[in-house]
Each structure stands twice: as C-alpha cells, then as structure tokens.
Amino acid sequence: MKSEITFASGLHVFGSTADRYVLSGYKPKVPVSEMIKTASKVEDLQGVELVETWHINQDNADEILADIKSAGLKLSMLLPDLWASAKWGMGTFTSNKEKIRQEAADTTKRVMDLAAQAGCNIIDVWLGQDGYDYPFQADYIQAWEWTVEVLRDCADYNKNVTIGIEYKLKEPRTHCFIGTIGKLLLLIDKVKRNNLGIILDIGHALEGYENMAESAALSKYFGDRLIYLHLNDNWRSWDDDMMVGSVHTIELLELLYWLERIEFKGWYSLDIFPYRDDSVGVASESIQWIKDLRRVMFHIGLNRIEEVVASRDAAKASKLIREGMFSLPSQS
Amino acid sequence: MKSEITFASGLHVFGSTADRYVLSGYKPKVPVSEMIKTASKVEDLQGVELVETWHINQDNADEILADIKSAGLKLSMLLPDLWASAKWGMGTFTSNKEKIRQEAADTTKRVMDLAAQAGCNIIDVWLGQDGYDYPFQADYIQAWEWTVEVLRDCADYNKNVTIGIEYKLKEPRTHCFIGTIGKLLLLIDKVKRNNLGIILDIGHALEGYENMAESAALSKYFGDRLIYLHLNDNWRSWDDDMMVGSVHTIELLELLYWLERIEFKGWYSLDIFPYRDDSVGVASESIQWIKDLRRVMFHIGLNRIEEVVASRDAAKASKLIREGMFSLPSQS
Amino acid sequence: MKSEITFASGLHVFGSTADRYVLSGYKPKVPVSEMIKTASKVEDLQGVELVETWHINQDNADEILADIKSAGLKLSMLLPDLWASAKWGMGTFTSNKEKIRQEAADTTKRVMDLAAQAGCNIIDVWLGQDGYDYPFQADYIQAWEWTVEVLRDCADYNKNVTIGIEYKLKEPRTHCFIGTIGKLLLLIDKVKRNNLGIILDIGHALEGYENMAESAALSKYFGDRLIYLHLNDNWRSWDDDMMVGSVHTIELLELLYWLERIEFKGWYSLDIFPYRDDSVGVASESIQWIKDLRRVMFHIGLNRIEEVVASRDAAKASKLIREGMFSLPSQS
Amino acid sequence: MKSEITFASGLHVFGSTADRYVLSGYKPKVPVSEMIKTASKVEDLQGVELVETWHINQDNADEILADIKSAGLKLSMLLPDLWASAKWGMGTFTSNKEKIRQEAADTTKRVMDLAAQAGCNIIDVWLGQDGYDYPFQADYIQAWEWTVEVLRDCADYNKNVTIGIEYKLKEPRTHCFIGTIGKLLLLIDKVKRNNLGIILDIGHALEGYENMAESAALSKYFGDRLIYLHLNDNWRSWDDDMMVGSVHTIELLELLYWLERIEFKGWYSLDIFPYRDDSVGVASESIQWIKDLRRVMFHIGLNRIEEVVASRDAAKASKLIREGMFSLPSQS
C-alpha cells in the first residue's frame, strides 16, 4: 500500500532571502503573517516550521499560531535561534564561556516550552556555529564533552518534546563538530536519551559526499532515530539550498524508496533558499518532483526495487528505473 | 526535425577493466576480436574507437578493421597511447627530454597515418601524463610552449586528419596542464591550425565543476570546435567513468539540448569503465538513457525549451522539464 | 635582488562582517572613517581598496580620500558594486534586460571616473551575479556576447583606467560565467582592449582546483595581464576568505616564487572575511606569513628553486624547500 | 618530555607502482627481498608492513621475516588482501554470497595467525571493495549487519591479535560503507570487542573533508582506539597518496600535536604511491617533514599550543605557529 506523506516548509522560504553579498535580501522584507499567507498558496503544503525570534516568540505566539491555522496550515516544528545572532559566533553548546553555554541551553528549553504549548512537540537543534574555522582553533574533545552535557540537560528538561538534531559538514563555520551522519549517531548514542532524534537535511548529506538514502538507512539501523526531513538540492560541494529535484533525480528516488522501507512517518519539509526565484513556484515544484518520483516508485513497485537492489546488478537496476520513469501512466 | 545521432564506444569497455588495486583486471582478459564481437551485441551501437598498441597497430590493422566491419560496426576514432606506458610517466609533449617529445610526436603522426588509412580521420590526443603531482614540479610556461610546438608539428603533418584534444583536470597526474574547457580553447586559439578539434569527455567536465552543456556551448562560441563526445557519468569529484545517465539526469538532458542547438554532428561515444558490471548491459543502458532523454526533449519541443531558458525562470524551467519527463507518450 | 612589494587590504576587512545567517554582522557597524583608522594599525599595510556605495561615492570622495591620506595610506583600487544590490540578482553585464546592462555599464564608468580622479586608475570588475543557479537557466553563448559587448564599451570609455577582471567559480551564483583563469584569458583575448587586466583572487583559484602559481604563470604567458592580487586562504571547496597562509603554506610559497619570476609589480591586497576574528590581528598575520615565506624564498635563492623546478624531481624540491624553511637565519 | 616515535612504511612504496592506465607499473618489478633492501636505505625507517599474497604467505614467511631482520627492520603490521583480487570485486565481508564472506573471514584469520606467528600482532582490515558504485546497488542495512557479524567472528578467533580497521570514503568503490571516522567509531561500538582498533590513514581523512587532528582526537574520546597511522598527503578530493608534508603543513603540525596529547604510541607508517618519484627520496622526505614539524612543536612547547587552542583566537594561534616555524634553532 502507498503511504501518505505530508509536506511542510520553512517559513523563511517565503521571506527576503539574503546572502553575504546582498545583506538586505534579494526580495523585499514582509511581515510574518504575509509569509504565512504566501506559504498557503503552495499546492499540497500542509505545515510550516518557524524560527524563534525571527518568526515567533512567547509574546506573539498566539497570534502567529492563529495565522497558521487560518491559512489552513499546521506548525510542523520550531527552531531555536542558535546560529543567527552575533553572540553565538564562537559557539553555543561548545562556547568556552559557561555563560553562553547556559544561555544556549536556556534558549533551547524556552523553545521546547513553546513547542509543547503549540503542540508540535519537535524542535530542531542545529549547531551551525559550533565548530572551528582554522587549524589550532578547537579542543575537539572538550567540544564533544560540552555538547553531550548540554544536550542531556535539555533532553531531561521535558521528555515530551523531541529534540531533533541536524548535522552539517560546514557553514557558517568552515568545520562543524557534528558534521556527518556518523558523528550525529555517535552523539545520540553517547547522550543516551529517548527524546533525541535526527533531522536529516539531504543537502547537508550531499555536501558531505554522503548518499542520502544510505544516511536515512543508517539512522534506522542505529536506533530508528529519523524524525524529520529537510529537503533541498545542491551541486554537492556546498549547501546551495536549491529546489528539490533540480539536480539529483535518481538519488532522490532512491531516498524516497528507503524512506518507505524504513517506514518514515515524519514531515517532508522544504529548506530551500529561493534568493532570486519565485518562492511559491520553487516550493511547488519541489513538492511535485517528490510526488512524481513517488509515482514512479509505486509504478515500478517496491518489491521489484528491493529485488534489483539485492541483486547488486547496476545495469538491471538502471533498466528498471529508467523504464519505470519513462513509462509512467498518465494521471487521471 | 529530429536529428539522427550515432553511437560509438571505446573498445576497452568490453575488455578486462583494471584499477590500481586489481591490476590484472576485474574480468578475464580477452582478445581484441572477442571484444569487437561483444561490442556488436550492444543495441544501437554503430562504431568503436581503438587505442593504438592496445587494440590496433600497423601490423594487425587490416585484420582488426575487417573484424570491425564484419561485426557490422565502423571505426569511429583512434587514440595514440600517450598515457599507458611507463616511458610517458613524466610527460609526452611536455617532457623535459627532447627525445621523449619527439617520440610522442612520432607516435601521434603514426596514428594519424593509421586514421587516414582506416578512413576515420580523427584521433584523440589526451595529454593525461602531461602535468605535475607536486608544488614546485613544473615550469608552467615552458609546458605550454612545448605543447603548442608539438601540436603545430603534428597538425601540419597531415591536414586531412583532425586532431581532437581531450582535456581533463587530473588523473593520472594530480594536475594536468590542459585541464579545463577554458584552457583547451586557449590552446587551440594559440596553435592556430584548422585541423584541431575538441573531444568533450563529459565526466572530465563534471569533475572540474563545469556544466557539460556550457562547455559544449563555449566550444561553439570559440570557433565551433566540438568534434566528438566521450560519454559517461560520475559523482563530480573524480572520473568514475560510470554508466551514462546513472547520476546526472537533468544536466544530461540540458547537454543533449545544447548539442542540438549547436548542431553537433559527431559521434556520441561511450567512455565507461564497467569494472564489476555487465559491459553489454551498461553500454546498452547508457545509450538507452540518451535515447529516452532525447525523446523527452523532442516531446517538450526545442522551441519551448529555448523560451524557458531565455526567461531564466528556474521554477518554470523545472515545471516544463518535469512535466515533459513524466508524460512521455508510450513508444509504438 | 629582492623586489619590494606593497600590501593593501579591502576596507571591508575592518567592518562588520556578515554571512547569510548573521545578517547584521558578527561585529558592530562602524563608519568608514573608523575602518580606515583601524586599517592603519596593521603593520606594513600601505593601501586600501574601497567599494563604491559601501565606502565611497562622488559626494564623499574628497573626505574619504583625505581620511586615507591622513592615515598614512594610499587608495590601491576601487570596486564598482556589481554584486551587492538586489537589482543585480539576475546579472549585470549579462542581464537579459537591456536597462540593467546599461545601468551596469554606467556604474562601471562612474567608478572609472572616480578611479581616474582619485589617481589609483584601477577598478575591479567582479561579475559575481553573472551566472546561473540551475540547469536550463542560462543561454551561455548570449551571456558571453553581452559580456564582451559591455566590456568593450567600458574599456573604450577611458583608456587611462585599467579594468581589472576577477574570476570566480561560484558564489553568489552556483555557477559564474567567468569562473576560471582559462575563461578569463579567453574573454580578454576576445575583447581585445589594452586596458584590461587580471585580478587574481587566490582563494578563487584554490576553490576551482587551480594551482595559484600556475594561474599566475598563465596570465603572464597569455599577454602579461596580471595587475593586482586578492589574497586569502580557504579549504579548497569554497571561498572561505580566511587569513593568508593559514592552510596552504607550500603552495603560497610557490606562488610567491612565480610572482617574482613573472616580475609582478602590483599590489598584494588582502581580501579576507574575519567574521569572528580580530581584524587587525588576522590582517597582520596575513602579511607576516607572506613576508616570512619571501624570506624563505630568498634564503633558498630563486636560482636554486628554478633549477629544482626544471628537474621535476619531487623529492629534491621537497628537500630544498623544507631545509630552507627550517634553517631560516634569525632576523636582526 | 619529548616522546619517541617510530617510523614504518608499506613495502609497496618500494615496488613497481601502477595505476589504472600504466598497469604494468611506472617502474620495473623487483622481488620482495629487493624491496626490503631498498626500504632499509631510508633514514630513520624502522619497520615495514606487508600485504599477504603480494609480499608474504605461510610458505615464504620465515624467509621474508629473516630478510626484514637482516635489513635491520621490524615487521610493523600485516594486511590481508581483501581488495586486490577480482574475486572481491563485489565485496568481502558484505558480499551477498555467503561463500565469499566465509572466504574473507578465513583470509583475515589466516593473516591473524601469521601476525601472531611473526610477533607484530596487528593486522589492517581495509574494506575497500565493500561499498557500491551506483544508486540502487546496495542494501545499506544488510551490509552493516554482515560487517558486524564477520568482524565479531574474526575478533573472537584470536584475542591476542588486534584487528585494525581502516576507513576510506571511496575508491575502489565510488562509495565505501565504512567511509568516515564517525562510521568506523559506530562500527567498533557495535561490534563490542576489545581487540579492535583504528588505523587512521590521514589521506583518507583529508579526502572526506575531515580534519586529521580532529579524527585522531575523536578516536581517543570514543574508547581510545587509535593503534596505527597511515601517512601520506593529497589535494583533498582524492587519495593521491603523495609524500607526507608536501601540501598540508599546518594541519600536519596540528595532527602531530594531538598525537602527543592523546599519547599515541603506535607506528607512524608511510602509505604513499611514488609512481614517478625516487621512492627512497620521497619516503625519506616524508619522515624528515614529520621530524622537522615535531621540532617546531617542541620548540614552541606543548603547553603554549594548548593555551592558544583553548583561547580559540585564530590570529594568536597563527602568530605562535608562524614564529615557531621560522625561528627554529639550528640542529647541532
């Protein structure tokens, strides 16, 4: 049977997207309520994820949640800002200043509260500022010790909220401590708390020469920890945050197949940066690529894919995929 | 109107493929006549390219050409060995030994003679050993001077044979002098001979973060020099020489579109290394991917593609390509 | 004899450095006059380069130039903003809107006027927004035609000002048209104007798997066009804009050697982004690495380096460099 | 106090080095006894590591071990061939043929016996053929299950022999299952046997955008598992197996510092491929770079390095390293 999947998007997709050259953004700034309305125009989109401080906080939460509801959407997840303020520049959980580590823990807990209150019960801890830029700039062991310590503290704070952790090889630091699927699985194993999960950003996987499907499969093998997806595409050497499906067609199909196989039930959420592009257009396309590739997958049949994978015959697998892709029955 | 295209393959595809670990090859060694027979089993394959010394030489040329003919194939191109013998280790056209440079020129001319005699009239000069491995190991200016000198000498030797030049960023040297489309176009411009052309290996383009379509387009803009294609696929950071279409679907489609637009008329030739794979299977799949993507291209229509490219609207282009790809009419 | 070299720096090094996450910058904003004062604290720094609109314009030029002078510095170069405004998002010289191409030309000419008036006589045209992000998003041939056309127009506007052109593989676009040393040399050859030069950003070379020394040497071989250096360092796959010498020691030494050999006389200018670092500290270190490596170079002797390069013996070259580096006489 | 370190080398360094183009090798083939004699010419080299079948087997072991001894060397380690025979092409521990998995286990145990008999007590299990080349070519979960199973079986076979495991991102497969430090640490944690260790090939770390020092530090943090080093250098995107110190000077110094800090006591062994180079020359240079950089390290002082690392001040760290490097007292 076909599983149902649900699509969300980061709200930033519908904002003014900026980079280090055009700091005021390639598009005009708009209020959050406007961004939510724009999001609601994307076909098949059912949820939005928000960043605390950028989009939502204790004061405006009721209003924003009402906006989301009236736009016909749900809140899929909340992100504490641990990477968008100058104070985090030299790290959050791994800052060598105890005060900063404490502030990062407090920020995380505050967003856990908000997630509990809003009912989404998932937050995304992405430690993008925790790493180093230069040789001789980090005590690697100390960094892990602090990360473990702060994560345990936060996880114990509210066991009903799941802390998703997102790994990334680099950027904004040239090297992030929790940079690969292997390191994140090690971290979760070390912290030993049930309310920790993996948020797989497939662009981060691609950037690190990982195979997205393999990273998803390993998250199953090591404790079934995958809880949420961040979807985008890139050219493999940087987190370009492009439209899903725009470059890596076959690997995306393989990921979709493995997500079925490991029975992933979480949100398929867009994390793209449409600097110069029509945001509704690229968000819609991202979803349609996934839906079309899922049609290809079910048209071929999960069992036949499983058989050809087990055979390890590259030519046979190619033929199966290619013929399935180019013989798709028209949609009624 | 649809153009007709013709497919060739390097004969090595059907041999014992070896790498630096399994030097005796992943498959049993077979005689050249056997490889030609195997090649003839690949659907839609019309030509084979051969390496002098490995596959053909003055002594056995009549016999080999007869084998090719009786297999229903044509000789598409000849390659002088300028990269498979220990004597070339420190370079051929750029060796700092005059004797070696002379021997490389003689080898090239000898294969030009063979190409003229066999009627294919194209050879492939790939200067894979001409480069450097370490800092402080090359006089970059001298290397270019020698390359220009030897190429002029060879080009003048027989103006009826076209010397195709193939660029590659690295391997077997960690850096090759003629490493990018830009450098090759500069070289051709400097040498100033009409019988020089570009052999675009799309895997070499991908390895160098080039866009295959853009490299083909530039070869048109700078003197319309594209004469022959080497087709394969890879994971972007190395010349993996994989089955065509196995990784980069959309970019391959864009290349096929630009090949139409620049009215490329040469061979579409496979340069893959099926170390562990069924060689007929992966060669066939390579061709079928190209044929299917060409069906997609003509189904969408070249004019509609041209329009969407001119609009520079990424979402619109995605929609056009995606809908075209997944609404392909069944083949009768 | 040892050549004298002169160091400059981009003024942005001393400002609030921002990235796409911390858009307000990792450091407080300061006025231009303050940045100039900070720059003057860097030992051995003699010049600064400024971006029009960010740092200088027709209205404040006299004041800013006076500030530079009173800080004991010179103006080394001016950059038109062709990459920091939302209006340039889809390109400048290659925009498909004639109005934008015209505005880009006008901007360039306006900064040429300013450069003439200020006496530096060099501007830096970096076409970072001219490229594409997605497949099927650019007409590669048209883009080159427009680039050639606008460059000719600008070059002819004032032959006493040299237009330096800076190439970069990617960022802010995922692919820039003028992305490699090869492509830039082709462009200059096509435009055919004497007042065009190359601004070599060594981080851009590294990002594109170029060898910095080789790129400098080729700029000599093809018309002796190198006029200015942008210095920084990175981890090879992205333009990290780090402190010079922080990662690539030996290759930097090789570059310094080739700069002597090709008799480069221009500014050695820093283009680093010290997001989280002491700006005076990293600028000073950048200069001191270059000075120390030049001491190593002269301690070994240019002739001995030339000999070992000509020998192509990697072990001998290593020994020469290593022993030179670790036997440096103490400075008096 | 300065620690003493001991240098070894793979014996293949002194053989005929081949790649996929020059399959017969860039140098003449020589008998093993000759290679051992050549190795003994490398200053400061004390050990050699050998590959079973290539260099040593049950029949010639006594003779080879005598040759090593009479050359004044020791056997540092043994490697089972799990990657140099066509039969392993589709995997060893993860082959989908039970017979092959059994043969791989038997091979491993046979070399464990030889290691016990020869007294080195360490073997290197590098699973280079265990991975995949294409999408849809591997059951990632099954592969890990089999790897765990076979490793447990081998580890239990003889608890007095340590099985070192070497990770590598790619080559000969385009993707290897045990590809990163994170994945290897996960594997060791899963297998749960005391006689498992990590063999860190620093070129493999570089190839995967790892920081060598960080990978060493993590191997300490997760169970103190580092037992042996494979040393070389490369250009970051491929396992070029170059002379140590030829490209990455500062990072190598940082690694040497962390090896002291984690009190690493194993062999510093060369794994370089001097295709075109004087093998004794590049092996000697590799060792001398390490010795000179260790001189720099002790000249600066471990405590001062530790302090500057803890400060996270990139400019200060640069100054400390740079001044230490260029003020080295002459050796008496």
Q: Explain this structure to me?
A:
The structure is a homotetramer of 332-residue chains. With 332 residues, chain A is α/β, with parallel strands linked by helices. Helices cover 42% and strands 14% of the residues of chain A. Chain A is built from 11 helices and 10 strands. In chain A, the strands form 2 sheets. In chain A, strands 3-2-1-10-9-8-6-4 form an 8-stranded parallel sheet. Chain A has a two-stranded antiparallel sheet with strand order 5-7. The longest helix of chain A is centred in the last third of the chain and has 22 residues. Chain A is globular, with a radius of gyration of 20 Å.
Write the layout of secondary structure elements.
The structure is a homotetramer of 332-residue chains.
Chain A: E1 7-10, H1 32-39, E2 45-51, H2 61-70, E3 74-79, H3 98-118, E4 122-126, E5 131-132, H4 140-157, E6 162-166, E7 175-176, H5 181-191, E8 196-201, H6 202-207, H7 212-221, E9 226-231, H8 249-261, E10 268-270, H9 279-300, H10 302-311, H11 314-325
Helix pairs in contact in A: 3-4, 7-8, 8-9, 9-11, 10-11
